[in-house]
Write a structure and sequence with these properties.
alpha+beta; 2 domains; five-stranded mixed barrel; 4 helices; 32% strand; elongated
């Protein structure tokens, strides 16, 4: 079980899988007394975790940004682990794996594992791209924001359509050793690449670009599309 404090007037208890809002009362006096003892410090209390489904997010400036750059949630800044009364400062300016809790008003992301620390330029770029108004015809899952992000962090991308309706990208990033190609769907999900790298299904272009920067020295196959 989790408890969000400081996000609403009363503490909000959430099921151990993070999916159900249980209200402001647990009927467990010891837990309620512990939560009350934490005062008005804003954060999340980890009481029990069970069958969690992890998510990845970019975390910057108190926001947890979806890898598509199309939406965001609040990101916790303090994490209390029962029965400790002093919080751990949550990860920030990071691409992280964590859990998404069903808050009273809006989902709240808890970053638990840093997959890559973001450079200052990358963190600023995320904030700039998210604040820009969307084009009238664009949805949050189009490639527009992803290409804007790449440009802001100094990555040069040329695009052209493949016969399958996907988008082929020639990528030149000064922070990695080789230029490479990546093929993405119209919603920005990576389909294939000529870089020797392992990535999970439903990896969006921005997270792919950021993770490749962690490798720096790339092995690129001769395959091109």
């Amino acid at each position: 079980m989790f408890c969000l404090i400081g996000y609403t007037r009363w503490p909000t208890y959430i099921s151990a899988d993070g999916k159900r809002n249980l209200g402001s009362i647990t009927y467990k006096t010891s837990i309620e007394n512990y939560v009350c003892s934490l005062g008005a410090q804003k954060g999340v209390v980890i009481l029990e975790m069970n069958r969690l489904q992890s998510k990845t997010r970019f975390v910057a400036k108190g926001k947890a940004i979806h890898p598509s750059l199309g939406s965001d949630e609040q990101a916790v800044r303090n994490i209390f682990i029962y029965p400790d009364t002093e919080p751990e400062e949550a990860l920030t300016d990071v691409y992280a794996r964590g859990i998404l809790l069903k808050g009273a008003r809006k989902p709240v992301f808890v970053p638990l594992v840093a997959l890559r620390l973001l450079g200052k330029k990358e963190a600023v770029a995320l904030e700039l791209v998210r604040e820009r108004p969307k084009k009238p015809s664009a949805s949050g899952l189009t490639l527009d924001r992803m290409l804007e992000f790449a440009e802001e962090v100094g990555i040069d991308i040329d695009t052209h359509e493949s016969s399958g309706g996907h988008v082929v990208m020639d990528v030149r990033d000064p922070e990695v050793s080789e230029s490479y190609q990546v093929v993405v769907s119209t919603s920005g999900v990576v389909q294939r690449t000529n870089v020797c790298v392992d990535f999970h299904n439903n990896t969006y272009l921005p997270e792919f670009l950021v993770l490749l920067r962690e490798h720096r020295n790339l092995y690129v196959y001769s395959d091109r599309w």
